[in-house]
Structure formats: C-alpha cells, structure tokens
Amino acid sequence: MRSTTHTDLVDETIALLDGLRARRPLVHCLTNQVVKAFTANTLLAIGAAPAMVEHPAEADEFAAMADALLVNVGTLDEAQMGAMRRAIPSANRAGKPWVLDPVAVGPLSLRTRFAREIVELRPAMVRGNASEILALAGQVGRGRGVESGDSPEAARDAARELAARTGAAVLVSGAVDFIVGEGREAGVANGHILMTRVTGVGCAMGAIAAACLPVAGSRFAAAVATAVLLGIAGDLAAERTQRPGSFQIALLDALDELDGAIVRRRARIVAP
Amino acid sequence: MRSTTHTDLVDETIALLDGLRARRPLVHCLTNQVVKAFTANTLLAIGAAPAMVEHPAEADEFAAMADALLVNVGTLDEAQMGAMRRAIPSANRAGKPWVLDPVAVGPLSLRTRFAREIVELRPAMVRGNASEILALAGQVGRGRGVESGDSPEAARDAARELAARTGAAVLVSGAVDFIVGEGREAGVANGHILMTRVTGVGCAMGAIAAACLPVAGSRFAAAVATAVLLGIAGDLAAERTQRPGSFQIALLDALDELDGAIVRRRARIVAP
Amino acid sequence: MRSTTHTDLVDETIALLDGLRARRPLVHCLTNQVVKAFTANTLLAIGAAPAMVEHPAEADEFAAMADALLVNVGTLDEAQMGAMRRAIPSANRAGKPWVLDPVAVGPLSLRTRFAREIVELRPAMVRGNASEILALAGQVGRGRGVESGDSPEAARDAARELAARTGAAVLVSGAVDFIVGEGREAGVANGHILMTRVTGVGCAMGAIAAACLPVAGSRFAAAVATAVLLGIAGDLAAERTQRPGSFQIALLDALDELDGAIVRRRARIVAP
Q1: Per-residue pLDDT tens for A185-210?
Q2: Which of A25, A24, A51 has the alpha carbon at shortest distance from A39?
Q3: Is C256 helix (H, G, I), strand (E, B) or coil?
C-alpha cells in the first residue's frame, strides 16, 4: 500500500469541498423510494444539484448530461432495473463516474444477483455497510434488512478484493469507515450513532460520493472526502440534539455549514 | 365483553414499549409513496427497524424474514398489489403478524375491492379512520380522500363486526380512538388535532401497530399500545409547537423520548 | 393589457386565502416521487387537503371528485403518464381546474413531448421556471436538470404566447415571478433564494396553485396569490434561519401562520 499522510487527505478534502461548491455537480440519482427527498436535500445542502430521472428512455439520455450517476438498489422494481441498465452504459460512454450503493444486498436474492451483475460495469465507487460489501463480494454476511450485522473490520478483505477486481474505490461505512482504492487505504472516525436513527443517511452517503467524484483528484480521495464531510456534519448535528427528528434537520444544516476551517479542525482520518 | 382494568392496559403498554426497544422488530412496510420516509423515521424513532421491499419476488422472500408486515393501500399500483398478494401469504405461512391500513377505502372502487379481498387473509390488526372502517365492513361512509367524514362512534358496530369475523384487532383512529378485538374494547383519548396537519401520521400508526404486534401479549394489547404511544407523542409534541412543520419533527423526537414513566403519567385509556 | 391596481390584487389574495381556509380544497396530486411528502405537507400547512391517487383507474375516478388536479412531470413513468392521460379529461369533464408543472421540460425529450401534448388539454394554470416555459412554448432554453438557466424576463414572450394560445394563466417563477393570463400581467417580488436549496419548493408552488384555483375569482388572481403566499412564507422563514434543513421546516410553519394582516403588510406585487 502506498503511503498517504492524513494531512494530505485533509487538504484534498478541503480542496474538493471548495471545488464542489464552485462547480455544483449535477447528480443523477436512481435511488430508492424511501430516501429520494432526503437524498435531494442532502445534495442541495452540501452544495450539489440533484435530479431524479427514472423513465428508462430519459435515464439513458440524462446520465450522459449529468456530472455523475448514483445507482442505489434499495427498492428495485422492473422499470428501475431497466433504467439502471440503460443509464450505467450511458454514463460510462460519456465518461461520467457512477456509484453503486448495494442496499440490503445479501439476504434478498434478486437484488443480490442484480448488484453482482452491475458491479462488473465498473463503478467509480461502491458504498455499503459491512454486510452488503461482504455479500457483494460473494461472501455470506449477517445483514438484516438494511442494517449491517457485521463490523467494518470483517469486510476489509472483501472490500480489498472488490476494489482490486473492479477498479472502484470501496467505502465501507461503520463506526470507523474503511476506505480502499487505487492502492491506498484509510479509516475515518467521524460520525455519530444517531446517523443510524434517521432513514436515508447511509443512502445520502452514496449520493455525496457521486457529487464528490467529478471534482476529486482521485476515486480514493473522493471516498475519503465523502466519509469525512458527512461524518463531520453528523458530529456537528449530534452536538446540537440527541433526538432523531431534530437530528435529521440539524444534519442538513450542518452540511450547509461545512467549510475548510471546520474540516481541518474536525477531520478524523485514522490508520485503517 | 371481558373486563380489563385500564391500569392493566397501561402496564401492558409499558411492558410492550420495553420489549420493542429490546427486540427492535424489523417491520416490512408495503406502504404508500407519500409516507415511506416518514414511516421509516417513525419506526426508527420509536425503536423499531423499517424496511421497504417492493419487488414482488423480494416482497415474498422478505415477508418471511421480517418480524411483521404492514400493508397500506394508499397509492396502490399493479406491481404493489402483486407484491401484497405474495407478501401476505408468505407472512401468514411464517407466522408473522400483518396489519391492514385501508387508506381512502370507500370513495375509490379499486382499492375498496382490493382491501375487502385481502382483509379475508386474516390480518392481526386493521387500522383506519371511521369512514375507512365503515367502508371496509361494507357500509357507506362519508370519507373524502384520505380523511374521515364520520366519527369513530359511527364506526363502532362496523369495527366490532370486522373484529368478530376476521379475528383482527380493529383500531379506529379519531379524537378518541376506539379499539376492539378478542372480546375486549377500549378508548384512547391521547393525541392532538395537529396530527392531522402532517401527512403520514395516520399511516405511521399502522406501522407502529406492526412494530408492536411481535412484542405484544395479544392483538388487543398491541392496538391499545399503538394508540397510546403515538397519542402521547402527539401530546408531547403539541406542548412544544403549534405549527405543522415543527410539529412533524417534534413528534419524531417525542417518539424517541417515550419511556415507562411518561406512559404511566400520560396514558388516557377510557371507557369505549 | 387591462389595468389592475396592486391593491386590488392584494385584496383578492387575502380573500382567496380566507376562502381556501374556509373551503379546504381537496387537491389531487399526480406529482413526482421526490416531492410527494413535501407537497402534501405544504398543502396541509396552508389549509388545503392533499390526496395522491396514482392507479390509472382510480386517478380517473378521483379527478372528478377532487376540487383540483396537479400534473407534475418530474418523474414520469409509463403508469403515471397513463394516469395523467385519464385524470386530465376526467377533471375537464367535471369542470375541475388543473395545473401543469413542466418540471425539467427542455433537456429531456420524452417529457418535453408529453408536456407539449397535454398542455393542449387546456390547463387552468402552467407553473414553471423560465427554461421550462421557454421549452414548453417550443423555444430552446438553457435548463439543466430541474434548474433554470434563463431569467424570468427571457421567458416573458413565451409565457404570453402560451397564455394566449391555451387560455391558462402562466406563472414563471424566479427572483421576481412573472404572471400573465386573461389579458393581465404582474410581477411578484416575494420569496428568498433559500427556497432553491430545499427540494420540492417549486413543485409545492404548483400544488398551491391547484389549491387556489377553486377558490379564486380568476385564473390570473389564483396565479398572483400563489406567488405571493408562497413567497411571503419564504420571506418569513428566511428571517428565522439561513440553513436549508431548518428552512424547510420554517417554511411549512410560515404557510400555516399566513393571514390577511401578514399578506397586506408583506405582499410585493410589482410592475411586470
């Protein structure tokens, strides 16, 4: 593994945040029905622009126009699978990065087959919890619904294998997020347990990843920035409230509030 | 009707809340498109775990894995009706309780036929407003869209008939909720009119019902607990704000805040 | 253009708001997947009643029962296009007004063709940003996703042409909203840039328009009232918070808080 100092990664994250606010990437979200509004609000809060375009014909057309594509399999239906099968090659042809979020892959067989099929189409990033990453890599996890039954540590080898085989950066979210890609590894210790008490925070991480990729120096740097930026926003929000309703609102406010000084003071990039 | 003291029902509700937090039931929600996020956040706030799995093949598979199933007909489409027709028998075979929420049954003919068809598949609970319960039982209510044009009192006989015929506990929501099942009846006077100014609070009651059933001593106790817990959360929230936007957030915070002492102090179980 | 004093329009807006609270119009929303919950909460907050009924058979039936219909093309799929094709003629036959919101029309070809097809079915109002109105009228705008790349000024002639040809009032939202219809024109300078940082605020404007039409003296007055009422709510909310999460909540609270005195004090109707 190549060495990267944590200071370098913090600098890259700050530059990326500035670039994101300057360029305002347009993120095409093919995501699940539960989190569409929260995902859109998360992207708007951090400074990106969301668009959910679901008709297969339009998804094909739009994936080439947007700056990045998010593919989240949380509530797959036949029409949406069709949209994903057209949008991904369209994004690839146009040179636009795409993110795979394999929600609840493992216990459910249809989405597990589908996610294993599309991960071969070369996503720039895969974002999942430990159980999802284990299952995507062909191992048996202990996920229950959308929640992980495994620790990020347990999924490290699966993440490394996925990253090496597909070329994607892999972001395994958990108490300490684990990131691997392009021969580098890092841990991110930002974030708060309240983030698991609001629906869609994990899915929002996939969306932020898609927003970071077009302005990042590398896939690995985008994955680290994603974990750091959302994690710091969670830390800030948890300082203001300990209840899940108001936490959801405080998290959006905190994403808007993020700046270079806050990132420098609060980023907790650790040895993986 | 068998006599149950109100103190017994309060004790049962407190025990159920403790059991819910300890076991964290996984609730499979087949619900309407408007309320998916709020339903998920409601379940997370009270201490349960939500999952929305809609593809017919996956809904079949997941209904057997989850602890309970919610079937809400608010925005039926063909695919979702297919998912419900597969998930309900799967839940029944696996011995998992399911809740029927007959949203807007009455004025709309397709969902009325569908709800009358599936209520024969033995739900553990039916949760509706007075107009919906009247219509589900084959009588003519005065509902308009998702709102009741009838008082809970007007729907009592229809609720009793439904409960006797299907074996379900029936929860008729209103200013005073009416609950009947397993030969018992109760009223619950908790709750606040602001709960009708936020979309999805009625639907969230169906989801909480599904979360209560796997940890309840009886269907009747689960229905009483559902009305008491959501109603007290509404009372608490209304003490903090009188505006509908902030009420929505305060309601989620209050669901998280609920504990045995609050329930004992505030539960208003009354003669039906 | 016929002359209307701004004082007259403020009086009409206040009377309309009172009428809306008294009659509580039921609005049938065929809208996009991202904004359904926020749209419903917006309508509840201002004093109307929302219902989302999407199955083509039910959409036909319900459009005749509701007081007004909203058609928003933000996330079209085949089933929803079918529902719209049945609901619009049903509303027309029943004499119920309907609103077209041509979200992201222009860059995406399927929805552009569809919106140009249905605008011929005589909506009472069209609500869009400048790029969408330009594209709907057959001109080339510079929209990107759901955002306008054109100023409301650039879309004036397109809006006038649409209004003259279809009979609809046309509301072009922007920093100063432009309204044209029935031979009259006005500008509305209420509103705040934070409204673009919350998903669904533009779509909520279409829903409020649908709620205003059944209680308005004219289509033009309904369009002016829509822009004034939502704009003032945005002004109030922005005085309370500058962050997008809490702004979303403050906006809903402010819609509930609106009354005649606030409207009289704050309405900024200007020369177009």
Answers
A1: 999 999 999 999 999 999 999 999 99
A2: A51
A3: helix
A232: three-class secondary structure by DSSP:
helix
User: Residue B140 is which amino acid?
Assistant: V
Minimum distance, in Å, between the CA of residue B205 and any CA atom of chain C: 17
Q: List, in sequence order, every residue forming a beta bridge with C101; answer none if it has no partner.
A: C72
Decide: A175 and B96 in contact? Cβ < 8 Å.
Answer: no
Residue A146: per-residue pLDDT:
67
Residues 234-263 on A with a CB inside 8 Å of C are: 248-253, 256-257
C95 touches A at CB < 8 Å: no
CB pairs under 8 A between A and C: 97
Confidence band of C4 (pLDDT split at 50, 70, 90): low
In angstroms, the separation between the Cα of residue B249 and the nearest Cα of chain C is 8
pLDDT at A4: 59
* Contact predicate B238/B198, CB 8 Å: no
Strand partners, A181: A184
At C10, list the tokens: 């403020």
Supply the pLDDT for residue B272: 85
User: Does the beta carbon of A34 lie under 8 angstroms from any beta carbon of chain C?
Assistant: no
Tell me whether residues C58 and B197 touch, CB distance under 8 A: no
Q: Nearest residue of C to residue B38 by CA position?
A: C37
A135, pLDDT greater than 70: yes
Confirm or reject contact between B50 and chain A (CB < 8 A): yes
Kindly report, residue by residue over B112-164, the tens digit of the pLDDT. 999 999 999 999 999 999 999 999 999 876 667 667 778 888 899 999 999 99
Say how many Å lie between the first and final Cα of chain A, rounded. Answer: 11
This prediction has a pTM of: 0.97
Question: Which of chain A's residues have a Cβ under 8 Å away from the Cβ of C248?
Answer: 41, 249, 252
Q: Which residues of A touch C74 (CB under 8 A)?
A: 52
CA gap B93, B63 in Å, rounded: 10
Phi, psi of B80 (to 5 degrees): -70, -35
Round to whole Å and give the CA distance between C13 and B252.
Answer: 35
User: Does residue B84 belong to the interface with chain A, where contact is any CB pair within 8 Å?
Assistant: no
Question: Touching check for A78 and chain B: CB below 8 Å?
Answer: yes
Cβ pair B110, C55 in contact under 8 A? yes
| Cα–Cα separations (whole angstroms), residue C15 to A270, C22, C45, C215 | 62, 11, 18, 9
In this predicted structure, what is the pLDDT of residue A3?
Answer: 47
ipTM value, please give it.
0.96
Amino acid at the residue C212: C
Mean pLDDT along residues A143-149:
72
Query: What does the pLDDT average to over B249-265?
Result: 98
Provide the residue type at C197 as one letter: R
Do residues B270 and B188 lie in contact, with contact meaning Cβ atoms separated by under 8 Å? yes
Smallest Cα–Cα separation from C70: which of C217, C198, C209, C231?
C209
C2, pLDDT greater than 50: no
Question: Are B246 and C253 a contacting pair at CB < 8 A?
Answer: yes
The confidence score (pLDDT) of residue B6 equals 85
The amino acid at residue B2 is: R
Higher pLDDT, B141 or A9: A9
Count of positions (residues) in chain B? 272
Whether A244 and B250 lie within 8 Å, measured CB to CB: no
Which pLDDT score, from 0 to 100, does residue B51 have? 96
Q: Give me the residue from A33, A110, A199 closest to B57, CB to CB.
A: A110
